[in-house]
Amino acid sequence: MLRAFMTRSSSPVDVHGLSALVDSLVRTHRAQYASADIPLLRKAYRIGEQMHRGQMRKSGEPYITHPLAVTQILAELGMDTTTLAAGLLHDTVEDTSYTLEQLRADFGTEVAWMVDGVTKLDKVSFGDVAEAETIRKLIVAAGRDVRVMVIKLADRLHNMQTLGFKSRPSQVRIAKGTQDVLIPLADRLGLYALKSELEDLVLGIMEPEMYAEIGEYLDGRGDREARVEAARRKLAPQLREVRVAAEVVDRPRHHYSVYRERSAGRPAGRHDPLRLVLMVDGSETDCYAALGAVHNTWRPIPGRFKDFIASPKFNMYQSLHTTVFGPDHEPMDVMVRTSQMNRIAEFGIIAQLGPAGQRAHKGPDKLLWLTRLLDWQRETNDSAKFLESLRCDLADEQILVFTSQGRQVLLPLAATPVDLAYSVDTRLGDRLIGAYVNGRLVPLSRGLADGDLVEIITAEGGDYPGPSQEWLLTAKTPQAQLQISQWFAGHRDDRGEKALADRITAGRTALKAALHQRDRGLSTDEPLMRLGRDLGYRDVDALCLAVSDGKLDAGQLADRLIDMVDRVPLTPWHAVAESA
Ligand code: MN
User: Fold this and answer.
1) Which CATH class is domain 368-473?
2) Residues 6+ apart with CB under 8 A from 128
3) Start-end ranges of CATH 3.30.460.10 in the chain?
4) Is 393 known to be catalytic?
5) Which of 155, 181, 304, 377 could staple 323 via S-S, CB 3.0–4.6 A?
6) Could you tell me which residues come within 8 angstroms of residue 73 by beta carbon, excluding any fewer than 6 positions away?
7) Fold classification of 2-218 (topology level)
8) Which one of 37, 49, 95, 110 is the catalytic residue?
C-alpha cells in the first residue's frame, strides 16, 4: 500500500488540492483505524496549516503538503489519531513560531511529547554535538514510545521521495544518513514496509543506472500482470475445492533485494520469477489447505518448502514458502499467510501496538535492543562516543541466543559469552568464569552464532576473580565494555587498573612513534577508530592495548593507517534528523 502511495504523482497543489489531500487523509484514517478521532485530526491540520502558511517547499508547494504526506503514510500504516496529529504538527515547533508550550496547551502532553521527540536540537545552543544529541533524543523518546520512531521514519520516507528537488550533494548526504541509521532502525523495529521503500529510494539516488537496469529485470518479459492473472484463474477452482478464501497478490521483489543478491554474486535468470502471496481469510489450518491447493495445481520444486508458521523467525515472521513450476513451467515463488501474519510481516512491531503505543504482545522482544542501547546511553555523557557506538551497533547483524534458563537474548553477531552474561545481569558478568556453547566448553572470547544455546558458569560465594582485562578486547556490546571498565574503576588498587592504562598509553606511544618515523601524524582518533574496527577491535584503547601486548605490530599498523587515510577521504557524520 505504501508503494501505491509512493508512485502517486505530485503535481503542484493549490487550496482545492489541499482540501482534497485532507479528505483523503480522513478517509484513509477511518478505513485503517477503528476509533478514529476526526475532529482532533482536523484541528491538528488547521493549526499546522496556519503555522506553516507562507512557507514553501523546494518543489514550490505549500509547506503543509509535507506534514500532510507524512501523516498520510502514518494513516496507511494504521496508526492511531494521536500519532497522526503529531505527524501533522511534527515540524511546527522546529520551523514556526508555535512553541511546545502552546502545542501542549492545544493538544495535550502526549502529542506535545511526540512532536518534541522528532524535533531537532538547534545548532545555536548545542553546537557540534547537535546532530548526535538529536539522534540520542529520538532514541530515548522511541524507547518510551515507539510511535515517535514511526513518525520519524515516515518523515524521512517523504523527504526521500521528494529528494529530486534538492542539489546532488544534499541528495547523497541525506541518502547516506538514511542508509546508515534510519534503515537499520526500521529493520530493528520490523517496519519492513518502510524499510524496503527507503532502501529502494537510497539505491535510486546512489546508483541510478543500476536501479534502472534492475527495474527492467523485475519487469521481466513485460507481461507480468497477464501471467499473474493466468495463475490466479488456474488456482481459483483448487482453492474453492478446499473451501479456502484467499486473495492472490503479486509481490514483485524490491530493487534493493535484487541488488543485494547481485552484490553477493548469486546467479540470476533472465528475468525475476513470479512471486505470489496468498492472503488467507481464515486460520493457520486454512494456510496449509491453501498450500495443498497450490501443490495440486503446480508441481513443487523439491527442497524449497519452508514452514515459518510452525517455526516463526525470531522477528515473529510467519508464512509458508514454496517454489513451484508455475505457468509456462517457469519457477514461481508462493507465500501463504493469514492477513494478521501479513501485517506482522510488513509492519512488525506496529502490528502489535496497543492504543498508547505500548506493546501488546509478549514474545521475543524486538525492543530489547533499544532498551539495551538506552541503558547504555544513560551512562555515557559523551555524545560522539554514543553515536559511534550506535552506528557500530546498527551495522552489526543481530543474532538470537538461548540461555540454559530458557531466556532469549538478542546480541550483535560475534558477541561473546561475556556480552551475553553482562546483557543478562551485571552480577552474572562480574562472576563469569566459563561458558558452555551447545554443550561444549568454549573460550570466553568465542563469537556466538544465531541459535546457540549458552550455559554461563559463574563463581559462587564472596570471593571471585572478577572480569579479565582481556575481555575488553573481545566483548562487542557497549554495556559489557562499560561494566567491565566500571568494575576495574571500583577495583583499581587490587586489580592493576593503572597497569592497564599504562599499557594502553605504551601502545599509543609506539604507534605515534611509528607514524612519526614515516613523517606522519594523526590530528584525530577517527582513522584509528576505523582501522581498529576493521581489525575487530572495539575502540582505540583496545587497539593500543593489542599493540602494547605485541599482538599487533606498530609499524605495520602505521603503514595500513597511512594507506587508508590516503586512499579514502574521511566521511563526516551525516545528520539523520534532516527535515527537508
Ligand atoms: Mn518533516
Assistant:
1) alpha beta
2) none
3) 221-348
4) no
5) 304
6) 2, 5, 154, 157, 158
7) Hypothetical protein af1432 (1.10.3210)
8) 95
